[in-house]
Amino acid sequence: MLSPWSQLFPISSFHLGFTTFSPSPASIDEHHVISVRLADSPLGIHKITRSLTHEVVCPPPTLHPSSDDPQLAWQARYPKGSCSPKTEIPGGFGFYLGGPKEIVSLLEGAKEAVFGYRVMFEKGWEWVKGGKLPGIYGGIGDIAYRCSGGRQNDRCKCFDVRLMWRRGGQGEIYAYLPINETNTNALIAVPPCSEANPDYGISVGIGAWIFGSGVWTTIAQRVQLNDIGRADGELQLWINGECVIHAKGLIFREDEASHIKGMHFQTFFGGHGSDWASPKDQHAWFSDVSGAVIR
């Protein structure tokens, strides 16, 4: 089985990376990776959903403890009845993450990047209908923010590819890309099942993997921007080091000013409405946040 380090960086080479994972100093130097604390300022966290918290805690032991298990993690709380941040009982947390300043400056001119993290749902987790998980976002200036939640305006100027869990722990990418037939056709073709939701994003690769509870899952996501005027963008996802989704022929941007910005680090139950809500108080933990500019 691949090490957590290899699962977070499932690519052969890259220009510069960062991680809150704790490999040996030799590994850091060899791979051109900046070691960063799991904290807001070093990770370039901004636009925090103020009604929610993401405190750093010592996560509980897993069902199968390992020496590679994270020692520190952000804790997400999902109170009973909680749903999206806009509902009466909010849950989870939300913010945007660009990484350390060296990464942020490189992203402005980058064509390809990978971001990842590890997540653990508490033992006995109840999945209900589904919920959101962090993923890469980007676009032009401030228009890149909030490229989700059913947004339709300026969709040619932003992209957001957060993940979701669904019933029984089925995983998917919940993609908001510029609205056009090329993107719809390419994303709908992703196995084992994909579908365009009637008024929101496209569910990509539904059931391509299954989340477990009480164990750490390592997620790494790669975006390759398209050349302007061409449909040659790519979206790739690894779960525990295995490539489970690889969509090609995509259009992430129509303007050179649109670029990868980092991660939309958001999680909550929903959807909207009580049928999406958490049936009890639940917790999840997020750790080993990492990223790299490939080129």
TrEMBL record:
Record keywords, A-Z: Lyase
Record-annotated Polysaccharide lyase domain positions: 71-289
Keyword Lyase attributed: yes
Gene3D superfamilies (alphabetical): 2.60.120.200
Pfam family, one: Polysacc_lyase_14
GO MF, any single term: lyase activity
Alphabetical list of InterPro entries matching this protein: Polysacc_lyase_14
PANTHER family: DISAGGREGATASE RELATED REPEAT PROTEIN, PTHR40124
This protein's name: Polysaccharide lyase family 14 protein
Organism: Suillus discolor
Source lineage: Eukaryota, Fungi, Dikarya, Basidiomycota, Agaricomycotina
